[in-house]
Amino acid sequence: MDLDKLTTEKRNEKSMGLDEYSTREILQLMNAEDEVVPKAIAKNLASIESATKKIIDTFNKGGKLFYIGAGTSGRLGILDAVECVPTFGTDPKMVQGIIAGGETAMMKAVEGAEDDLQLAEKDLIGRGITAKDTVVGIAASGRTPYVIGGLRFARNLGANTVSLSCNRHAEISKEAEIVIEVEVGAEILTGSTRLKSGTAQKLVLNMLSTSAMIGIGKVYNNLMVDVQPSNEKLRVRAIRIIRQSTDCSEEIAQKAYKEAELNVKVAIVMILCSISAEEAKKRLLASHGFIKDTF
Question: Both 159 and 269 in a single domain?
Fold first, then answer.
């Protein structure tokens, strides 16, 4: 394994005396280095767009989105996946994060898991992968065997494949239909890819999932109209979203929300179109969930 060729493993010339820096100097350097991340992502917007369109197509066909990765990359995939449920009201199976080593690896490294070329195949089969699905393989280094094996299996199965790495000409790029390589440069702490690389991966995953959810009708204007009211804050937000969408009173919003059986989107269509909950549901079904197509 030759790590010298990987940008993510190089030493950062700006931080050679890092252990002698004051706390303020460390923070200033980290902040300055983090500024390169959005610019590096901007160079990949065309690939991110292509990946998003594949994901939207996958969802429209009833398929699933899988994120696969090891270590920090795997944890970031799981984070993005689980947040889709409360934010967009998705079925937990619709977007899934898979980490090498399973749930144990969320808190503690599982020895050898990321080096197993066959393990991701077993994990994906266990999650019921089909040719309708999209698999996003995440690896800052771009050479993690677990991710390589998973992408290779998914591609041979006929599923859509996307690679997300932080090195150019990454190994995982060879296994994917769509390649995203966000080269953010050497970390201030050599090889610690939970820093800039992790930030880059998180931002790209935000873009993929959010833009895909917008693309299947889970957003009205800039509001989360499929939000799941699983706690008090979200219940308050649900009513607020109804009011912001319809410019109605608190009383009207509460009444419609109750009649809609706590479905924010149905309540909004009821108020905007002056129709019953049943009719609102029918219109939303006919419009594939897009509120603006129910008018």
Answer: no
